[in-house]
Write a structure and sequence with these properties.
Rossmann fold; about 375 residues; alpha/beta; GMP Synthetase, Chain A, domain 3; about 30% helix
Length: about 375
């Protein structure tokens, strides 16, 4: 008489190719039912192909054939793991040559996130750091325009025997963006998996070289691209960009909540308030709070996160971005002083974070259903 225990014992000696754990311990075998000479084995796999099923059948038959009576009949029931149990589209890997990865985020579009990313990058470069920007805003990439490299294309090279992309470089900043691969009037209409695949290529099929900081310019909101990035690499910390008015602050609060969520847990380095006020130093020092006063500063206090500083509403910042030469490149300008201040504050928070906290884990969320609404 064949017993269930005997079958399980035999299958504990069965290993898939390249696996170091047997198929029972890895929980592929869900149940075994025996009726006289018939043995029914329930198997759960994440690959629905016929080839994968045949591989399991052959492995099990080969493992049992010498230990079971000849009249035994093996039957198999295959169950495919549901989507929330499958692996994420982007799988976590390490970026050995990059010391700090900082996500620049905003809940609301139009608050100047890409402008802030560009100018912080330039400030870091002027301070002597090696800097790169990953423009992860798949549907609205702005960084190529802000660095006057929209017409450029990444070159290829060979690294460790593998063909990889070389980031486009301008003003000493290494940059990769989906904008290099699309025309200026071409809309990117992709579902999440396709966008994740493109990000995967820009992150891992590229050669960044040695970097002190990789700034990731995230798209607005708290969606699929954000999760894909955080499933992909270990983020040192995040910076939230907002403007002072309530409409922007509501979404900035959600951005902080996303990074603070238990199964994400990316340190928030601080909040930057953009377009904080308008003034014309050439005429007077009077400040005009067009969008409200101290909204970002008060939000930082309320959420108990650092306030990294504010940037005034200045026409030349916009003009500099439009012509592809970030305002932080200007010499001896009060504009540069503002960007240097928020950059230095960010660096201080990075130093504190690296000293006091362990490396951020790559998140284990496998689908959007894994990231429930925060209560």
């Amino acid at each position: 008489m064949v017993s269930k225990e005997k079958v399980l014992t035999l299958l504990k000696k069965a290993y898939l190719k390249n696996d170091t754990v047997d198929i029972v311990t890895k929980q592929y075998i869900k149940n075994i039912v025996i009726f006289d000479s018939e043995i029914i084995i329930d198997i759960e796999i994440d690959n629905p192909t016929l080839k994968a099923k045949q591989k399991f059948k052959k492995l099990i038959k080969d493992s049992l054939k010498d230990s079971l009576p000849q009249n035994c009949v093996l039957n198999f029931n295959f169950k495919i793991k549901t989507s929330h149990e499958s692996q994420p589209t982007i799988k976590g890997k390490s970026l050995k040559n990059i010391k700090n990865i900082v996500a620049i985020s905003s809940g609301k579009g139009g608050v100047g996130k890409s402008t802030m990313t560009s100018n912080i990058a330039i400030s870091l470069k002027r301070m002597g750091f090696k800097v790169g920007i990953l423009d992860s805003d798949i549907y609205g990439p702005s960084i190529p325009s802000m660095f006057d490299i929209s017409e450029k294309k990444p070159m290829s090279t060979v690294n460790d025997g593998k063909s990889v992309m070389l980031p486009v470089e301008n003003y000493g900043i290494k940059i990769l963006s989906i904008g290099f691969f699309t025309k200026i009037d071409q809309a990117v209409i992709w579902r999440g998996p396709m966008a994740s695949k493109a990000l995967n290529q820009m992150i891992f099929d590229s050669y960044w070289g040695e970097l002190d900081f990789l700034l990731i310019d995230l798209p607005p909101g708290t969606g699929d691209i954000h999760l894909s990035i955080m499933q992909s690499v270990s983020i040192t910390g995040s910076v939230i960009i907002t403007t002072p008015q309530n409409v922007a602050l509501i979404d900035a609060r959600k951005g902080v909540a996303m990074f603070n969520q238990k199964n994400i847990n990316v340190p928030v380095l601080g909040i930057i308030e953009n377009m904080a006020y308008f003034s014309n130093p050439e005429l007077s020092n009077k400040k005009h709070y067009i969008f409200g006063k101290d909204g970002g500063k008060n939000l930082a206090t309320d959420l108990e996160v650092p306030f990294l500083g504010d940037i005034p509403l200045i026409q030349s910042i916009r003009e500099a971005g439009d012509v592809g030469r970030p305002a932080s490149l200007q010499d001896k300008s009060y504009i540069v002083d503002h960007f240097d201040t928020v950059t230095k504050n960010m660096i201080q928070e990075v130093i504190k974070r690296n000293k006091n906290l362990p490396k951020t884990e790559i998140i284990k969320i496998k689908t959007m259903s894994g990231c429930s609404a925060i209560k």
